[in-house]
Amino acid sequence: MKRKLLGKTPEELKAMALEAGLPAFAGKQLAQWMYVKKVRSIDEMTNISKAGREKLSELFDLGYTSASTCQISKDGTKKYLFPVKCALGHGLNACETTPDDKMEEASIEAVMIPDDDRKTLCVSSQSGCKMGCHFCMTGRQGFHGNLSVADILSQFIAVDEAQELTNCVFMGMGEPLDNYENVKRAIEVLTADWGFGWSPKRITLSTIGVLPNLRKFLDETKCHLAVSLHNPLPEERGSMMPVQNAYPIKDVLSLLRQYDFSGQRRVSFEYTMFSGFNDDKVHADALFRLLKGIECRVNLIRFHQIPDFPYGTSPSGVMDMFRDRLNRLGITTTIRASRGEDIFAACGMLAGKHKEKLQ
Q1: Nearest to 271 by CA among 173, 135, 83
Q2: Residue 327 lies in domain
Q3: Each residue of 108-160: pLDDT tens digit?
């Protein structure tokens, strides 16, 4: 399998350029073409000689994958489907060092969400997911493999809005902290001066609370954090989210209390509302007690119905009362607008080509 250029640092690209018989400064040229101009083929790198481009193509793969389909919601949200080959190993280079016959063909989805002058890309970090949350279509399809750094960054280049993106959220398929090394490298490229040049404030990572990689993320990046909480009562949370048994939410919050979220970095908590399960006064008050003392925001999310799941979404009036009670108690709470539900692009609905397994 050819090594991929996408995701490499200028120093790594310099070494690869030299390997192809190019001058050392070609490493910076490669970075400029990929991360600033966002080219989709080595052939587009026109300030590199034709012979040089041919040698690069012989030795390396750019790492770009085009979308196989794109669906557009009535609200303007766009969902892109990508074919990928995944390695089951966790390491940074697992996707490059695994033989082709050990790679699994799979698919992932990325969602572009327009909102006034913002265009946010919801990116995937894995195909499928190990976490097994009962209310999530991605989790219910099982785990197919980690994405490489190139697979993650390719999503930013392949969408029609590549040059217009303002923000990104690692909230697509997979648990980002379960593929932390590759996600961290992707964030490095996104935020580096030699890379995309984004501020860390434009990036939010969503997790259900995988320790100790959560500590690494907080120590090694300055990006925003969103924690999928969904129920403040341990037994009830555990009945829907198996991760509660391995990493209890109280331990996650104990870690978060060691960090300052009163300045540039923010932490929010995602709370999907299930009618008759987690949407009453008891749960609102328990959520307040759980989060008391943490500078944060709670985002209430409408549940999007999936097959063979016993609960529906809470009525709008119930969600309003839940929001208002938390706000009165001093926890800033909003109801997140649902986007792309008609094309299965909303929270918890991404499943790639594996939807048929869930019917």
Answers
A1: 135
A2: 69-358
A3: 999 999 999 999 999 999 999 999 998 988 888 889 999 999 999 999 999 99
